[in-house]
Design brief:
The protein is an all-alpha fold. Helices cover 76% and strands 0% of the residues. It holds the Pfam family Peptidase_A24.
């Protein structure tokens, strides 16, 4: 477990530096990503998922911490992180599909449900949903759908509830929605199998 915590700190450090170098990234204070990824990976280690599932909560934990830090700092989810998440998710879920039948269908359904819900929200009311949130939603839907298609609805509801709480707390200005959907999505992957 200590090796995974140390690897998490290193991965968080790399994520923080990557964010600082991206054209549309953010300067994140030292320690944010390092501590966040270490904690996420420690929780994964405690859960002890099978080897074929392990990369999913590790990768999503890293992405959740790094994107949340960026969204909280500058209210942006950079394409340089959200778009490459699609082929990474496909590769990792392909391994999972070899061990669990139905994963591919669940992933496709989750992608359509979460991605479609966010796209509709963006089309109906552009100020209510950022373009980065829409781009991220598909990949999160695919990963959550691999676990459980009904869990996608739970992630949508949790994301909306957390964003509402954030809006009521802030009372003015933009609210970062990324963390509100990333954390519940990661928790779903942590809880399975």
């Amino acid at each position: 477990m200590s090796a995974l915590i140390a690897a998490g700190a290193l991965a968080g450090w790399a994520g923080r530096h990557l964010l600082g170098r991206l054209r549309r990234g953010a300067a994140v204070p030292p320690g944010w990503c390092e501590a966040g990824v270490s904690l996420a990976w420690a929780l994964v280690a405690l859960r002890q998922p099978p080897g074929w599932w392990l990369p999913i909560p590790l990768a999503l934990g890293w992405l959740a911490v790094v994107l949340s830090a960026c969204d909280l700092r500058v209210h942006r989810l950079p394409d340089a992180l959200t778009l490459p998440a699609y082929p990474v998710a496909v590769a990792l879920l392909s391994v999972v599909a070899a061990h669990r039948p139905g994963v591919a269908l669940g992933s496709a359904a989750g992608l359509v449900l979460l991605g479609g819900t966010y796209l509709v929200a963006r089309v109906i009311s552009p100020p209510s949903m950022g373009a980065g949130d829409v781009k991220l939603a598909g990949v999160l839907g695919a990963v959550v759908g691999a676990v459980s298609v009904p869990a996608v609805a739970g992630v949508v509801a949790a994301g909306a509830a957390f964003t509402l709480v954030g809006a009521l707390w802030r009372r003015a200005g933009a609210v970062a929605h990324g963390p509100a959907v990333l954390v519940p999505s990661w928790l779903v992957t942590l809880s399975w199998p």
